[in-house]
Amino acid sequence: MTPPLNGRARRSLPALAGVIALAVTGCARTSTGPAGTAAADTGKVTVACGATEEWCAAMAEGFATATGVKAEFVRLSSGEALTRIQAGRANAEFDVWHGGPADGYAAASDQGLLEDYVSPNAAAIPDRYKDRTGAWTGVYVGVLGFCNNTKVLGEKGVTAPGSWQGLLNPALKQNVGIAHPSTSGTAYTALWTQVLLNGGDKDGALAYMRKLHPNVLQYSKSGAAPAQQVARGEIGVGVVFSHDCVATREQGFTDLEVTFPAEGTGYEVGGVALVKGAHNPVSAKKYIDWALTAAAQEIGPSVKSYQAPTNPGAKKSDKTVDLTTLKLVEYDSVAAGAVKSVLTRRFDTEVAQAPKD
Amino acid sequence: MTATRVTTDSESAGRLHLDRLTKTFESRGTAPVVAVDAVTLDVAPGEFITLLGPSGCGKTTTLRIVAGLEEATGGHVRLDGDVIDALPAQRRPMAMVFQSYALFPHLTVSENIAYGLRTQRRGKDETEAAIKIALTSMNLLGLENRSPHELSGGQQQRVALARALVVQPKVLLFDEPLSNLDAKLRGAMRAEIRRIQRRLGITSLYVTHDQDEAMTMSDRVVVMNKGRIEQAAAPADIYFRPATVFVADFIGRANFIEVVPERMDADGTVISALGREMTVAAHPDVRANGAAYLMVRPETLSLAAAPEGGVGSVLRSTFHGHSVDYEVETNAGTLAVTVPGPEPRRLLAEGTNVTVTIDPGRAYVLNKD
Amino acid sequence: MTTLTHSSDPPPLTGAAGPPGPPGPGRRPRRRRRELSVLLAIAACVVLVTIGTVFPIGAVLASAFSAEAMPRYAEFFTSAVDLRILWNTLVLGLLVGLAGTAIGFLFAFVQTRLDVPGKRVLHLIALVPVISPPFAVATATIVLFGRRGLITHDLLGLEYDIYGLDGLVFVLALSLFPVAYLGLLGMMRGLDPAMEEAAMTLGASRWRIFRTVMLPLLAPGLAAPFLLLFVEAIADLANPLVVGGDYTVLASRAYLAITGEYDTTSASVYSLILLVPSIGVFLAQRYWLSRKVRTTITGKPSGSVHLITGWVRWPVYGLAVLVALVIVALYGTVIAGGVTRVFGVDYTLTFAHLHEVLLGVGREAIADTATLAIVATPIASVFGLVIAWLAVRHLPRAGGWLDFAGTLGVAVPGTVLGIGYLLAYRPDRYAGDFLVLPGLVGGSAVAGGSIAIVLAYIVRSVPAGLRTGTAALSQLHPSLEEASTDLGAGPMRTFRKVTLPLIRPALLTGLSYSFARCMTSISTIILLVTPGTRIITSQILSAASTGRYGVAFAYCTVLTAIVLAGFGVIRLLVGRNATLHRVAGSTERHKR
Q1: C296 and B100 in contact by Cβ < 8 A?
Q2: What's the CATH number for A142-267+326-352?
Q3: Looking at residues C143-155, what average pLDDT do you find?
Q4: ipTM of the complex
Q5: Cβ separation of C429 and A247 shorter than 8 Å?
C-alpha cells in the first residue's frame, strides 16, 4: 500500500510551512530609502510612463539623444503607476512618473509619494498647467471634445453636435458614448465640467447627466473606449479627449470629426514628477527638465499622440488642437478631486441606474 | 396468481432460431475478420443453451447480435418464427445480464429492478408488486433502498438478474455473468440461475468460457471455435462423444490414440489399441480405414502394476489426495491416467511397469481432422 | 529553514515514512534515504505554494482587513451599486458556468455519441480557445457581432448591442468551454457502454436512456466543470473591460479601483469579496470531485458504444458545427485583423502590424515572454505532478491541503494574486539586519523583476499539471509502483522510472496547458512588468486600450502561433505516442 508518513511527520508539515512563512515574512524594512544623493546616481533613469507605448519609447529615445542619459520605462496606467509607486515606498522602483492626468499626481503627492521639484524650465509653463509647490508639472493638455462619426450621423440625419445642449438631441438616442466617471478620468472631467458650467451646482450637473442618460448607449470602463465605438460606427458621438479621436482617425477611421462644445469645455493636464526616494535623482531631474522643453513636447505628434503641449514655445502640429481658439472652463483638479468619490457615487445611484427610456 | 403474473411460464417462452448468422468486421488496410461464421442454431422454448469457447471464438458477438446490440452482416435471427433482424434492441422481447452487471449506480436496488417496468409504462401497483416478488424470489429483501455499490458481488448479480427477469422477456441472455465472482460464490450462483430458469421455463442463451459452468447449467452446450459451431449437444454427449478434437480437448482432458477403424458395425467401430481389439462408439463421419483417433478420458482408464509384460511404464506421478495423475509411456504415446480415490498401498512409483485398460463403453472414435 | 526542521526532529521523521517492507538490518540505511527524498519533495512543494500563493494572498488579506478598510465593508453592503456588482458577478459566473458546460457537453456528446463526419476537425476547433489571448476573442466578437458587426449588422441587418451580460457570457463561455469539453469527453468515454446497453435491452429509447441513465451518471461530472468555469468567469478581467459595457463585476471593479480611483484599499476590499465566492465554489468543486463518479461498479467496461444514426443527430451536430464556425470566425477575424489596415473599415492588406510585432517594439516582448514561459512551464508541470503524486500516493490526509494550496493559484483571481505579489515582494525582507529575501518585484529587483513573473506563471499553471496528474495517477494501479519499491527502488526513483513514464500523456497535457496559460496570462502579471521584462499580453492590453486593434490582433496571432509551436515542441520532447497504460487488464481474469 501507499507508505503513509507517520503521525509525527504529518504533524510537522504545518510546522514546516509555518517556519517558511515566518522566514519569508521576516519584516519588510520600512526604514530609510536611499537618501538620493548625487553620488548614488547610476546615470540611468527609470520612468513610470502613462502615455502610449510609442510615445514612451520615443520620449526615452529622445531623452537619451538629447542628454546621453539612458531612460527605461514601463507603460502603466495612472492607477497602476500609483500602486507600483506606493509599493515601492521603501525602496523606490521608479525615478520619474511621466504622463497620465494630474489628479493621479495630486493623489500621489497627498500620500507623500512625490518629491517637490521646481524645474528651471517650468517657468515657461502657464500656471494653470502646473502644481504650485512643484509636486508635478504639466507636459501636455488634453481637451474634452465630441468625437463624431459623420457617416453614422448622416444616416440619422443629425449634424455633429457643437454644444452640450446639442448632445441632448433625442435623435441621438442610444448613440452617445461616454465612460463612467468613477472608473475614467475622462468622464469625471466631463462631469466636473458640467459642475463648472452650472456655476458649481452639483445637482445641476447631475440633472444634465440624467437628461443625457437616454442618449448614452453605455458607460464604458475606459475613457478612450467611446472613440473606438464611434470609429466602428457603433455610436454616433463619443465624449472623449479630442486627441484620442484624432489618433483614432489617423489609424484609418476617416469618418471621424472632432467638435467642441460652445459652452466651454474641460481639460486634463498630463504631468511629470520626481518620485520620492528615487535612486537616480540627478538623472531624474534631468529628465523632467528635458520633458518641459519645447523640443521634447514636439515628440508627441510624431508618434500619433496629439495632446496639446504645455510649453507655449513648442511647435504645434496641425492635428493638435489650438488651445487659444477654445473656450475652456477654469478647471481646478484639486477641487474636482476632493469631491470625486461623493460625486461619482451620486452619479452611480442617481444617473447610471436609471432606466433609459 | 402473482407468481405467474410477474414470471414467465413456458407458454410465453420464445423459440429462437439463428439462421446462418454471420458477422464480418471490416477495418481499413487489413483483411476482414469473420467473427461469426454461418452459425445456425435452434433454441427450443424454455431451453438453456450455453455458448462455450475460448475468447475470440465469436460467442459474445453471436449473443449481442441476438440481443440487437450488434448488427449481423449475414443470416437471420428468428423469434417464434418471425425474422427480427430489423428490430432494434429496445423492441426485442429479450433481457440481458451483463458481465459487468451494468447496474445503474445512481439508482437504488428497487429502482434498478423497476427500470424496465417503468420503460414499459406498467401501472404503479403492478410495478410495485412485481418488484416485491422479484426481491423476494431473489433473496434481496431488505436491500431495496441500497445503492448498487453498497452490495456484495453476489447481491449485485442477483439484482441484475432480477432486473432482467422482471420484464418477462421471451429470451434471457447472459454475457459471462459470473466471471467477476469468486469461485465459491460462482458455484452458488450457477445453481441459483439454473433453479430460477427451470422454474420460470424461460428460454436462455448463456455465454461463458468456463466449461465447468457450461456443463453444470445447460440443457445443451454449443462449443464454438473461430466463429463456427464445433458441436451443439447435451453436456454428457459433449463430454463423451465430442464431434471434433477441438471439442474433446477444450472440454476436460483427453487422450488421443491414433487408430485405424477396421470395420463399422451397429455398436460403433472395431479398432485395436494398446494391443487389444475392441468395439467402440464412433462419430457418424468415421469411415473404415480412415485416419481416426480413439478418445479416452484419463479417469476412464484403469492402471495396474504389471512387473512383467505391461504396455508401458509410469513416467511421472502427481498425487492430489483425492486422485493421482499418472503419465504413462506406451507405444501409443504418452497417456494421461487419473486414478480416483487411490489406495495408499497401491500407489505406483515412477518407472513401474504397468498395464493400461481401456473401457470401450467410455471411449469414442472420431475423425482425425 | 527547512533543514532546521529536519535536524531538530530526525528520528520520528525517518521512522515509518517508507513503505512497509520486510524488516532487515541491511535495508535500514536505504529506507532512511528513501524517506528523505519524499520529504525533500514535500518541502519543495510547501516552499513553492507558500511563497507563490499563500503568502501573497495573506498580504492581500492583511490589507483588506486593515483598519482603514473596515468602513468600506459597511459601505459595500449598504450600497445598492456595490451589491449590484456582487450580484452581477454571481450571475455572470452562473451563466458562464451553465453555458460553457452545455457547450462542452454538446461537443463531447457529438464526439462520443454521434455518427457524423468531421469529428476530428470539430475536436481540434474545440481546442483552439485553450489558447485565448486576452482581448482577442472579445474584440473579435465586437467586430463580428457588435452593433455594427460584420455578421449582425452588415449581414443580418440587426443593430444588436453586444455590450453587457449577453456579450460577456458569449465571450467567456466560448473561451472557457474547452476545459469542460475535455473533462466531459474523458468522462463520457469512461462511461461503461454496458450501462446504456442494459437500458436498451430493457426497452428504453435513446432519449429515455439519455435522460435516465447518461445525464444522472454524468451529473456529478457536470458539476466539476461548471464550478471551474464559474470561478474562472468571475475572476476574468480582460473581457469585462472590453465587452462588459455597463455590466460591472467585482474583478473589473477591483482593477478599476486601482486604475481609475487610485484606491488600493477599495481594490483589496473588492478582491476579498471576490475571493469569498471563488474559494467557496472552489471548495464545493473539490467536494464534488472527491465524490468519485461511480460509472462502473465492478468488472471491466464491456460492450460497445452505440453511435446515434437517426435523424436526431443532425440538429445536434448542426448546433456543434455552428459553435465551431463561430470559433473559426472569431479566430479568423483575429488573424485577418492582424494583416489588414483597419479591419471592418479598410481591408487593405498590410504587414505593418506584424512588422511592428515581429521586428519592432514587439520583438523584445516576444523574446522575454517566451523565455520566461519556457522557464516556468517545466517547473510548473513537474511541481504539478509531484504535488499530485504526493497527494495521491504519499500523504493521504495532509496531501489534500497541499493539493488545495497548489490549486489555489487558479482559484484566486489573477488580479488579487498580482496585488498580493506587489504587496508581498516589492519590499526587501529582513530578519533583524540580515537580508532574507530581496524584493522580487520591479525593475530594480533581482533579475529585473523576472523572478516574480516566473513565480506568478508557475503558480498560475501548476493547477493544470496537478489536475491532469491527479487524474492519471488515480487511474494508475499502485501495484506497479509497489513492484518497483519492492525491487529496492526509492520513491523518487520509482517516480522517475516507473510513474513518470506511465503518466506521460498527463505530463504532455500538463506541459501544454501550462505553456498556454503562461503565454496568455495577463491579470496577475500586469502589475509586475518592468523595463527589463516586457510581456506580450501587457503589450496587447496597451495596444487594445489605445485602440490599435491591428497591432493587438497581430500580437494575438503571433502569440497563438508561438503557443502552437510550443505544443509541437512539447509533443516532440515528451513523445507523441505516449499512451495511457490502464491496469484493469483482462488477461488476469481469464486465467483463474
Answers
A1: yes
A2: 3.40.190.10
A3: 84
A4: 0.82
A5: no
